[in-house]
User: What shape does this take?
Amino acid sequence: MMNRRTFHRQLLCPSLLLGLGSSLRAAEKSGREAFEDAIDHGLDYLSRIQTPEGAWSMRNGRDPAITSLCVMAFMSSGHVPGEGRYGLNVDKGIRYVMSQQHRNGMICSPNMGNLEMYEHGICTLMLAEAVGMLPDRDRARALREKLELAVKVILNAQVTQDEDRGGWRYTMRSTDSDISVSGWQLMALRAARNVGCDIPAEPIDKAIGYIKRCHEATSGGYRYQRYGSVTVPCTGTSVLALELTGKDHHRSPEALKAGSYLLKNPLNPRQQHFFYGIYYTAQAMFQLGDNYWTVYRKNLHELLLRQLPPKAAGCWVGWGGDDAAVGPNYCTAMAILALTVEYRFLPIYQRNEEPVEAKPKG
Assistant: This one.
């Protein structure tokens, strides 16, 4: 029998990285949409590649942030901890991430110190999404304690001075900010507030202020930092931040103009940060709703099912840059999270409507 390491190595073999075209065509004939089969294959891949400790890896080893993204991919598809077909995978993943929290509340792998806030924001978001899904009250209480520690890290790491105030950067001690790291922290804070954590209004208001300072009025898009070029991924991140931080920003003229920018400038699978971009733009356009989502959804499926379809193993693999460097576990989780946004199983995916309870899948 092939061991896990051999299996992972063979997944990267070009002769095995074949598309799922015939399977997706079969899905269309069966009455299911092709994206549903792609999600199922992706989850099957992730379930097989999980380590015995419950982690998922990036290229240089086990990683709590990649694990958190994979856990959320399962939960976004309706799979909850301890129940159903993938309940054990989800449960083990949550346990692994909880075990990676440091005494100061930070959650990151030891070799990611220069990117600690990236990892921490993603992990905190997952813990907040999971806390209401744990069937065991004692475990839920333990997770909530870790979540509250993680939230304090985010609040303490927010930049407080100059024009970068309100944002976040790579480390707890950073004095400048960027949209990418800030987006993860805002997502985590919103998710934590959804489950009852005490999140003061002031840090959220300051974060929105920073995001607005990265706005480029002519195009309607957003920059990575205050000075620089507008990018599609950062525009998606910024729209989502506006949509999730209160009714005053929901479908604001600024958010709608940025949505139009995203429709006019679709992602390309060969561009840098493609899977990061597909994750944030899918959520942003779903939040805007109406024709923004209807038009974007068609392009989303074109990108992930035809232009860059999953491989025979069920995983997505990036063309290059950070997608290739981080690896197929990351790409697969991000693709599934983009495709499942319309399911609304994750609390963060709600769209000004009553929450939809995640039911365990068999």
Strands lie at 56-58, 61-63, 222-223, 230-231. The longest helix spans residues 137-157.
